[in-house]
Structure formats: structure tokens, C-alpha cells
Write a structure and sequence with these properties.
The chain is built from eleven helices and ten strands. The protein is of the alpha/beta class. Strands 1, 2, 3, 4, 5, 6, 7, 8, 9 and 10 form a ten-stranded mixed sheet that branches. Helix 6 links the parallel strand 5 and strand 6. It starts with 9 loop residues before the first helix and ends with a helix.
Length: 337
Amino acid sequence: MTSFHSGHVPGIQAGRRTIIKAGSSLALTAASGFPMLAQASPLFESILMFVPAAPGGGWDGTARSIEKAARDSGLVGSFQFENVGGAAGMVGLPRFVNQRKGMANALMVGGSVMVGGGITNKSPVTIKDVTPVARLTEEAGVLVVPSNSAIKNFKDFEQAIKANPKAVSVAGGSAGGTDHILLGMMLKAVGKNPREAAYVAFAGGGPANAAILGGQVSAGISGYSEFAEQIKAGRMRPIAVSGTTRIPGVDIPTLREQGMDVTAANWRGVFGAPAISAAQRDALVQLLTKMHASAAWKEVLQQRKWTDVFLAGDPFAKELAADIVATEIVLKDLGLA
């Protein structure tokens, strides 16, 4: 500094000015609610998030939740979304594989439905063609009937499918997906051929909800979050959940509790693009591991009643390979593989 007013001691004056300035900044920081410590730079400036489903469904909800948790935690600067729906992810998957090949900052949401979709559609491009990053959540299926249905409880449903499976139409997601597989397993459990299932596949939660509420089908199967609003409003009656335990905070008995030894859950996870390096995959694994540990993600799990089944990197890849083999067996029973 070169010019000062006479009579002041430069060092003290400058120091005081700095202290006042710092104090004002602290006051502003406290008032604004932002953390006082400087944020570390994000792990990724931007993520290209690909959702092989229409907006509003389970995969889209997972992708938007990842965005919120990762941005709230300062892990990612920005997200760009692309939604391409249809055929249990089999319309979007080839697009992701071809257009995002080798891109280190691309992620795709997928899950158990896509495993079945690849087998059922005999797709040349399957979940084997992307890079497993992390399994995040699991959501048990819930079996519902319209509130005015003659089917009052699970025993009624069980007797109805045992008497005539073709007379009990059940709405769910894509053919060969988790919902369809669950119905096939229930038919097998009551001694019927899974191929007799009167399964009605819908591309999204909205049309399935409308069909159930309109009485166009006898029942419906989906993840709890897809039906939660209608259940709370009393428009649908939940009669069983398909997990190994009850959904936390939701008082619906499992199939096992009601005498049917069947469990199934819809897992969701994220995948990197094909042809990325091991180091690039590890960076994505690190991003998802940090996001999973964040308070923002814990809040998402609680709000959406998703079960935390986090598994990343090589252990997830190994689990996925086993899941593909097991799914193929069930789909052969359904006549879809």
C-alpha cells in the first residue's frame, strides 16, 4: 500500500479493516445458512444422466434423487438428463451404449427390470454391455386391488388364481420385468403353470394406476412408491408385499407371513458407459460411494421407503452376473426366454 491518511498506523488500520471485513463475511455466512468452511471442488463438474424410461417412473425417480443428493453434497456441479422410454429399458439401452461409449462422466439408471427385458426381448444389446457401478436400492413389490374389489385379502387372491389364473388379470410394468416374474412365482407356488398368468403390461405407473382404479384389471403389482398415494387415499387396498420383511412404517404383511414362500424385490442401480477405463470406473464408484454416505441420500431413502442395498464395483458386477442367470430360469418358466 502507498497512500494512507496521516496519523494512522498502517498495519493496525489494515488489520482492523481485514477483521471487520472477515466479521461481516461470517455474519453473512451465518445468516445465509451456507457452511462457513469453503466447499471442496466437486468430484465431477457435470454428469450426463441417462434414464431408459419415461419421466415419472421408478428409474426416473432414482435418477432425480441421485441428482439431488449429489448436488446437495457438493459432489457434482450439474446434471444433464435424457429420458428414452420403452420395452423395459431396451429402447434406451442401445442408445446409451452407442452414443455414450467411452464417456467418463455418463451414468445410466437401470435395474432388475432391465435384466428381464434383455432376455424377454432377445435384445442384441443387454445390461451386460454397460459398466456396473453400484446397486443402490431395493423396493419390494406390493400387490393391490381396487378398494371396491370383491378380493378383500391375500387369501381371496390366492384362491382366485388357484381356481382360474386366466380370470384374474394383473397390471404391472413391462413383460418379463419384476412384477411379471412375481406373478409367475405366485402361480407356481399354488401349483399352476406360470404361463397361464393373465398379466397386463404397462409402460409406466400412470396408465397402470388408471387401469386398476378403473376396474379394468383385477389387481396390480408395482413398487410401493408407485401406489403409495392411491393406498393412502383409500382408493387401493394393499394385500401383500413381496420382500423378505415388511416395508418400514408400512403395515402390510409379506407373502411369507401369509403362507406363500415367495420373495422378490426390484433393485435399482447405476451403470457407466461401455469402454471406459478401470480408473474412470473407479471415479464413478467413488462418486456413488460418497453420495450413498451423505445425509441427503439417507433422507431420500427414508422419504421414498427404499431399502438400502448398496453394493459397488466388482462385488456388484459379480452379483449382477448371478442375477442374470437366476432371472433367465424364471423367464423360461413363464415361456418368455
